[in-house]
Amino acid sequence: MNHKIKNLILDFGGVLVDLDRSRCIESFKAMGADCIEEMLNPYYQQGLLMKLEKGEITTDQFHDELRQTVGKEMSDKQIDDAWNSFLVNVPTYKLDLLLKLREHYSVFLLSNTNAIHWEMSCERFFSYKNLQVEDFFEKIFLSYQMHQLKPSKEIFETVMAVTGIQPEDTFFIDDSEANCITAQSLGIHTYTPKAHEDWGHIFK
């Protein structure tokens, strides 16, 4: 780790939270929503899911459009449960690591995500040691609130403009090579961990 680094920007899916794409696809297929498979990408979504993650449609609109696309009755809860099955867990050692990193760095979260995933994650994954999600990060940047998606340059430029951080002082961890390439083009240092990697080793 470069000793000049002052800021860390972390991805959520695949870096903090473990993902299970096949489980999610099977959950939707069990309801007859086979169309989800072609929309669901580990790094950035397609079609209806992309519109949800960019904040172009609301959660209610997503429910309605999915039902219309599939042509079958599915309750909002059934849809949300199937969609949330994509997210498995945030291991507690990663939560402990975040708290440790905050002692030395300004730690930011930058995620392509949506309200359904995020609300569940805040409730289920970050309720740890009587803490809340805000205790783990200096500031949180979510695509559906920003109406921007990685790997666009604009989303990184927004983060830097809002926080005032400089690219040369910043280290970005994301499991998508495309996202890291964009960050590198702006002068940000990057690391792309493998699936389920304990990437804490880069700070030792």
Automatic annotation (TrEMBL):
User: What Pfam families does the database record attribute to this sequence?
Assistant: HAD_2
Q: Which Gene3D superfamilies match?
A: HAD superfamily/HAD-like (3.40.50.1000), Putative phosphatase, domain 2 (1.10.150.240)
Q: What highest taxon heads this organism's lineage?
A: Bacteria
SUPFAM superfamilies linked to this entry:
HAD-like
Xref: InterPro entries: HAD-like_sf, HAD-SF_hydro_IA, HAD_2, HAD_sf, PGP-like_dom2
Which PANTHER family does the entry link to? ALPHA-D-GLUCOSE 1-PHOSPHATE PHOSPHATASE (PTHR43611), FLAVIN MONONUCLEOTIDE HYDROLASE 1, CHLOROPLATIC (PTHR43611:SF3)
By its UniProt entry, which NCBIfam families does this protein fall under?
HAD-SF-IA-v3
Q: What is this protein called?
A: Haloacid dehalogenase
Its ancestry begins with: Bacteria, Pseudomonadati, Bacteroidota, Bacteroidia, Bacteroidales
